[in-house]
Specification:
The chain has 310 residues and is mostly helical. The chain contains 14 helices and no strands. Among the domains are: 110 residues, Type II secretion system (T2SS), domain F (Receptor-associated Protein, Up-down Bundle), CATH 1.20.81.30; 65 residues, no CATH class. The longest helix is centred in the middle third of the chain and has 46 residues.
């Protein structure tokens, strides 16, 4: 079934807006390259802060929700403004609300809009998880670098700076932020705790606790770090095995979710307008509600089963 004429106009309008946005961004990039020769980095930061998106981003970061989204974007390693992320999410909500509401029924448009918001935050959570897992995979190497630096007689602050230079991202970037905080005068304890808050995990919590205790009371840091490196390497192998074993269940979870969405379009394709009719009467609303609840519960159960803490 082809989309109605208004829906086609909305799709074309969104495409034109995206294309114009891309052309404008490319033109701004060329203009920025020309200005870099006569501007300092501070001038460029001030110019961006004075723009409309910059002012909106500053206002959003003053709110609790904006600060939360900003921390999550930083933890995910996404170089995206809070304002840009929220504007794209709002645009996706409106487009899904109109298109799905026109093609199926208004109630499904609302559900699609809410689902679009959920997908944005699910993608953000996935990026956070992926970056945290990459960082955990680098922890054995990080512990060994810190151990070697400590055995060479370097202080912990210098060892962290050296690890930031030697390790790849995300460990290099996160340790670089910790090293910058230490250079600005932040206490060692607070800088390490901030590192643990940005990438929360059991493995990093153990390493951070060891470094904090060592910086306070001394002790054999080299022996502790070498022992931690061996333990983290074993946990890394176990996590890889568990992830491989649970891969089939994770695919099943995504397949069930896709089936739930596909069935709606299939029913409306076989019998056009039946979903709109069902959503306008109480028995149909009950049936649709029960079906949505069953699919949601199945997704939650499968997700609980596939979540294994190592």
């Amino acid at each position: 079934m082809t989309l109605p004429y208004p829906a086609i106009l909305v799709v074309l309008a969104v495409t034109l807006v995206a294309a114009a946005w891309g052309v404008l961004d490319m033109a701004m990039g060329w203009q920025q390259r020309r200005r870099l020769r006569g501007r300092t980095s501070l001038d460029e930061v001030e110019r961006r802060a004075d723009s409309l998106l910059g002012r909106l981003d500053t206002w959003l970061r003053r709110t609790d929700f904006g600060r939360l989204v900003g921390r999550r974007l930083t933890a995910a390693g996404m170089r995206t403004r809070v304002s840009t992320f929220l504007l794209l999410m709002a645009m996706g909500f409106v487009v899904a609300l109109y298109l799905i509401g026109t093609y199926l029924a208004p109630v499904f448009g609302v559900a699609a809009g809410v689902g679009t918001v959920f997908l944005f935050f699910a993608y953000l959570r996935r990026q956070e998880t992926r970056r945290r897992e990459e960082f955990i995979g680098q922890l054995p190497e990080l512990a060994r670098v810190l151990s070697n630096a400590s055995s060479a007689g370097l202080v912990l602050r210098t060892a962290i700076e050296m690890a930031a230079d030697e390790l790849d991202d995300p460990a290099g970037a996160e340790l670089g932020r910790t090293a910058d905080a230490l250079r600005l005068g932040q206490p060692m304890d607070q800088a390490l705790r901030d590192l643990g808050d940005r990438l929360p995990s059991r493995e990093l919590a153990v390493l951070v606790s060891t470094l904090i205790v060592s910086s306070r009371s001394g002790g054999s840091l080299v022996t502790a770090l070498r022992s931690i490196a061996g333990t983290l390497e074993d946990r890394k192998e176990i996590r890889r095995e568990v992830k491989t074993i649970m891969g089939e269940a994770v695919v099943t979870n995504w397949a069930i979710g896709a089936m739930g969405v596909g069935i709606l379009f299939l029913v409306n394709l076989v019998s056009p307008g039946v979903l709109r009719t069902m959503s306008e009467h109480l028995p149909g609303q009950i049936i649709l509600g029960v079906g949505a609840a069953l699919f949601t519960v199945s997704l939650i159960i499968i997700r609980r089963i596939t979540r294994v803490d190592v």
